[in-house]
Design a protein that fits this description.
metal-binding; single chain; alpha/beta; DHHA2_dom_sf
Length: 488
Amino acid sequence: MPPSLLKTLRTALQTHHRFLAGALSHSEPPIYVIGNPSADLDSIISAVVYAYFGNLTARHHIPLINLPNVSSGPELYRLRPEFVKALHLSTHPALEGEQSWDETPESAGALLRDHFLTVADFAAQLKSSPGNTSGRLQADAVLVDWNALPIASPSATQQQNQQPKGCIPGLEKAVDFTVLGCVDHHVDEGFLPRGPQTKPLEIHTAGSCASLVTHTLQSLNLWHANPPSTDPQTQQQQQQEQLAQLALSAILIDTTNLTSKDKVTSWDTQAAECLTRQLSANNNNTTTNLYNQVHQTKQNSLDLLTVNEILDRDYKQWTETPSSNPNPHSKPVEIGFCSMVKSLPWIVRKAGNAKVFIDAVEAFARARNLGILIIMTAFSSPVKGGEFTRELFVVALDGDRHDNNDNDDSDDVATTALKHFVDQAEEKLSLQQWTALDVVDRADQEEEIARSLVGDDSGQYRRVWVQADLSKSRKQVAPLVREAVTSL
């Protein structure tokens, strides 16, 4: 068992600085454990937990939080307070020799700055590192909660059966990552070769990547899942309990406390059972209590963000290409998917009014050159007695307004595809006409929101619904959008 979680993270950060300074020998380069670009709770915790146990091997492991515009410290606390909550619950009461810390911007911000590394930190440090004088940095990586690097490495001369290289936004001009392994619960994109050179390679359908990380670490004989004894816990058992509770918090959030029928798999239930057994009898954070605290923090966190930050907070983007060529000028369609734990009326009120919100949505899409943008909400409706509710808002953007290319007819493809999606989705997702299921002040305000969200098709094609089939989450909606584009 390595030292405590916090001490291991401090040591990992020191190893990173030594690596940049050229102070590590060629025989001891670190492995960066990199989560996906949404940097959600599951992604961050999967990277932290995997890196912690990875340090039991002969290689240093460093968790890298995949945020290219956010430094560790108070800003990371503001944007990911649910991670701070999960970390605080896991590390308190503090172990002997560990300093206690509070969930305040000052205390938590200082702890994050001294223990965690973001892509923004990495990039800033490269610019000032005296050891960075020989061009692009070569580094090894393990991917968690995704399975393909988005940018090809300019120095890659990949051959069959070699580990693939690639780059990530924020470091694309400075660092080439050679991917040694992967643990993920998304669709396999085929980036990683199957064979002994890629280890671990665990890509399975599961509600949470942390479930697969737990399984992988145990199968590699790195995490010995022994239940605590009835005697006073040893320091080692307390350390193991910290990691178990941290991993469990990610699993519970990603599976709605193991109640989401469309997400929960045997990977999740087995991991949760194993981790729960590692919690001591005097641990007050039962699974429900742990879920409620972290979930409430995640919901309240949106109050601290701008509309643009809310849209970007749990965001996925991918490209789809029509199977035929309906127009010689048409291009692949960029699709963005935003998930949020507040209602559409809530974010409209956050923006000020519906028009300002639509303008913010258009600006968000234009900055990413999107053809289609989908926003899915999930919240408890006060109008329906606290019942869990989903809304779906879809937009096809006018290509000329976000690409400035007079010959680009990809907007026609996007609009046609989204209309095809509407035809298919209304029945398959059991969509119903939208009405505000959050509290609104006046009936005319609800009408104004509905009118603005649907639009008049003059510059954008927009539709909004209440989703009656609550089992259909992003994993079920995204394939329908993909099919709508590729079938053209």
